[in-house]
Amino acid sequence: MKFNTSIGFSDSENILIYGKDLCNDLIGNVNLGDMAFIAATHRLPTENESRMLNAIMVALCEHGFTPSSISTRLTYLGAPESTQAAVAAGLLGAGNVYLGSMESTARVLQESVGFYGNLDNDEMVNKILSNYKDKRFPGFGHPIHKQVDPRSKKLFEMAENLGFKKGYSKLITDIHKSLCEIKQKEIVLNASGAVGAILSDMGFKWNIVKCFALAARSVGLIGHILEEQGKDRISQDLWDYVQENTKYNM
């Protein structure tokens, strides 16, 4: 039985990662975001690609008390000997509501261009939104940022300056405008929507998009574990509160 991989190889003298010498080419020369880019493309990013992807990952790293961070904290309360389990618990809830909706956004945009690419942008937007009359369009809405998501604003500004605000970003911007007109109110284009569009403009297929978010979120969850080790821990108080405020129907 034989296996093939282009990821890593080592012998007594060399360590190769994606065809590059780990010690001479990578260590000290690239950052963690660049390594994520290399993993996805098997090539080094350009300076602009590096700046854009790292900015996106920084934007996704931390969100405060969210279901993912609370899951991490509660898991750490029950298994403090297993930090990897606590991080994993926080990543398991990366779905269409929290953290993972950038994948859904990228998929809708990319598949829509594949289906309706022969139409002009206005016709394409109408076709896309007609498929979402009775369901929520991914990448929109936020419980706190009701008018503008400051992360989206910043990331789109960077994308424009770095040359990555292209067709998919224009498409989601047009969808945003039409959606607000249809609903007759301002609906915020959130960071997940912006990230899904920008990563699509950078050439990433929709099914890799969430992986960058998971890598970034892992870093953020470490902070929650460390806080649980100190005086600002909340997991025991959360558990106590549930115990004290739950009515059990017998």
Automatic annotation (TrEMBL):
A single GO CC term for this protein reads: cytosol
Q: Does the keyword Translocase apply?
A: no
Q: Which pathway does UniProt place it in?
A: Carbohydrate metabolism; tricarboxylic acid cycle
| EC number(s) stated in the UniProt entry for this protein | 2.3.3.16
Top EC class for this record: transferase
Signal peptide boundaries: none
> Which residue windows are coiled coil?
none
Q: Which domain of life is it from?
A: Bacteria
NCBIfam families linked to this entry: PRK06224.1-5
Spell out the family assignment given in the record's similarity comment.
Belongs to the citrate synthase family.
What name has this protein been given in UniProt? citrate synthase (unknown stereospecificity)
Tell me what organism the protein belongs to. Salirhabdus euzebyi
